[in-house]
Amino acid sequence: MPLVEETAAIRKKAMEIQYGNHIAYLDAQTKLVEQQNERLVQQRKLVEIAAARQALEEQVDQTKAGYEHQVLNDLSDAEKKVRARALNSARILSRPNSRLSSERSARRSMARCSNWPFTPWAAWSHQRNN
């Protein structure tokens, strides 16, 4: 653009001293105006691009934050479920009258008396007698 400005200035001086061609001066002025307008357009595009880039960066940050939040929530939920299941398992295993413990003891009793047929009634009556 500096060369176009200089050419326009030389053509103007040449016109003023009646040495230059009026058509050449107008051509130089047209080129100068076109370049100045193109510069303004490019500056506006630069501002738009910078704003679009900033908006995309903010969107990426929001997406990352949302993903991190969701992952942490999922992890927290999974940890709660694990704790609840562990607690429930501990409660079941610690109950002396639980079905699981009575089945275990019935199987142990049946292993001692191998000629008994396995039935819940037989296991229960065998437990009462021992």
Q: How many E strands?
A: 0
Mean pLDDT metric: 78
Beta fraction of the residues? under 5%
Helix content: over 70%
Give the CA-based shape: rod-shaped
What characterizes the major β-sheet?
none
Number of helices, counting only DSSP H or I runs of 4 residues or more: 4
Distance between the termini: 108 Å
Tell me the Rg in angstroms: 46 Å
Structural description of this entry:
The protein is an all-alpha fold and 130 residues long. The chain starts with a helix and ends with a helix. It is built from four helices and no strands. The radius of gyration is 46 Å and the shape is rod-shaped.
Secondary structure topology:
Elements: H1 2-16, H2 22-94, H3 99-112, H4 120-129
Helix pairs in contact: 1-2, 3-4
Q: What features would you highlight for this structure?
A:
single chain; 130 residues; 4 helices
Short description:
Helix content is 86%, strand content 0%.
